[in-house]
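User: I'm curious whether this sequence folds into something compact or stays loose and floppy. Could you predict its structure so I can see for myself?
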Amino acid sequence: MRYPVKGGHPVTYHWDGTTWTLMDAPPLRTGTDTAEIAAGSPDSVYVAGWAEDPDATEPVPGVARWNGAVWEDVTGALATFYVHAIAPDGDGGLWVTGSDQAEPAHADPVFWHFDGTTWTKETGATAPDGDTRWPSYSFYDLAPAGDSGTFWAVGDYSTPLDSHGDQTVNGLIERSAPAPETGTGTGTMTGTMTDAG
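Assistant: Here's the prediction. I'll summarize afterward.
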């Protein structure tokens, strides 16, 4: 993002093997820090991030796609979401994850999938203590899990403060499973919880 934060705007540069060239700005909200980039092909490049809304507590996510000629805003249904990681789905679409700030106050494990036209919100696997302790989930990275369109997600979940003011933070690794009817990565999530301290 080109600063200052207030009035700043997303910027992208293209490296042609010799020099950097400033591209047209992605058509995203002023103040959007596009810290994530994912390239599926030369005509399918995504940038994503979020802006802080000074009049609200929720983040304002933004996703733009380079179609080989121009940027287009494809944010669509994404809302109240901190975008921490994006990854191509292998079919021209995009997986997005991070930290969901939608009500209720705790954040579920959430993944968004963009198929090139429509966004679909999918819930990840919950922690075994999730029913009783209301954890809050965040994912920070995505990586392909083979050629099937599935992926690994790495993050953590934290439980609310206890009566002593302590909070437990646990590492979390999840892997998507292919949907039975399509073979793509839009199926269920399986999770492995590890203690992160």
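Summary: The two ends are 33 Å apart (CA to CA). Confidence is low (pLDDT under 50) at residues 182-188, 191-197.
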